[in-house]
């Protein structure tokens, strides 16, 4: 396990569920941080869909002076998050709640040096350009957008087609939790060239487009 992997798990050790999820997605988390440009104390970074797995590393390891998070929720509400690693390091930040497809982002123009939009695009139900235009607005000229999303053209997707299934990874009907909330499903998964077109149409230059075997597991139904 890499040093960054251990660092991420140290911040998830407070909960068995959080640690299990982090271990399951650890390769993706580490690769995301490897691809994220380093910042300085004068730089701001926004992590959309922040669940605090990689959020502390944006400040303590990548050097961003201000880290902000966002998540789906009632527009205008802010949740203050505080976490402590197994080694005693502490991190805190504010998580702004809003609907990225419909609500204006609660940030000024050209506010962030870097925006991370990871594993969020596939959950959008409507036109993604509304979200992309807001990301562009709040990103500084010359800033960075790092986006990750499942690849519908992956080996797993091709195997699903060849065995009589549809290629989308998480397209099941959403499950209702005990508190009445619904687990989000994937509304639409993207092919790499589609993602590149989306970024270019949103005003970004594509510096790197990468597909790889990150959490590339074959579900049990492929063998039925």
What are the SSEs and their pairings?
Blueprint: H1 3-11, H2 16-24, H3 26-35, E1 44-48, H4 55-60, E2 66-71, E3 78-84, E4 90-97, E5 112-118, H5 129-138, E6 139-148, H6 155-162, H7 192-201
Parallel strand pairs: 1-2, 1-5, 2-4, 5-6
Antiparallel strand pairs: 3-4
Helix pairs in contact: 1-3
Under the CATH scheme, which architecture would be assigned?
A: 3-Layer(aba) Sandwich
**How many separate structural domains?**
1
The low-confidence runs, each spanning 5 or more residues with pLDDT under 50, are none
Largest sheet: 6 strands, mixed
Q: Please report which band the strand proportion falls in: under 5%, 5-15%, 15-25%, 25-35%, 35-45% or over 45%.
A: 15-25%
Q: What coarse outline follows from CA principal-axis ratios?
A: globular
**Structural class, from helix and strand content?**
alpha/beta
The largest beta-sheet arranges its strands as 3-4-2-1-5-6
Calculate the mean pLDDT score and round it: 91
């Amino acid at each position: 396990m890499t040093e960054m992997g251990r660092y991420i798990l140290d911040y998830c050790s407070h909960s068995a569920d959080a640690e299990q999820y982090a271990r399951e997605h650890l390769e993706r988390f580490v690769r995301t941080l490897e691809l994220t440009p380093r910042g300085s104390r004068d730089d701001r970074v926004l992590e959309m869909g922040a669940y605090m797995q990689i959020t502390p590393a944006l400040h303590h390891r990548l050097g961003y002076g201000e880290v902000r998070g966002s998540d789906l929720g009632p527009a205008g509400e802010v949740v203050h998050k505080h976490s402590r690693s197994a080694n005693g390091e502490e991190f805190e930040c504010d998580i702004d709640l809003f609907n990225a497809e419909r609500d204006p982002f609660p940030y000024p123009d050209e506010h962030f040096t870097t925006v991370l939009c990871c594993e969020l695009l596939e959950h959008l139900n409507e036109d993604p350009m509304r979200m992309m235009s807001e990301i562009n607005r709040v990103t500084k000229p010359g800033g960075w957008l790092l986006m990750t999303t499942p690849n519908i053209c992956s080996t797993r997707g091709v195997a699903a087609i060849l065995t009589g299934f549809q290629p989308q990874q998480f397209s099941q009907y959403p499950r209702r939790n005990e508190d009445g909330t619904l687990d989000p499903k994937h509304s639409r998964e993207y092919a790499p060239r589609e993602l590149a077109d989306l970024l270019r149409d949103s005003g970004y230059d594509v510096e790197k487009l990468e597909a790889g075997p990150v959490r590339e597991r074959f579900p049990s139904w492929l063998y039925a």
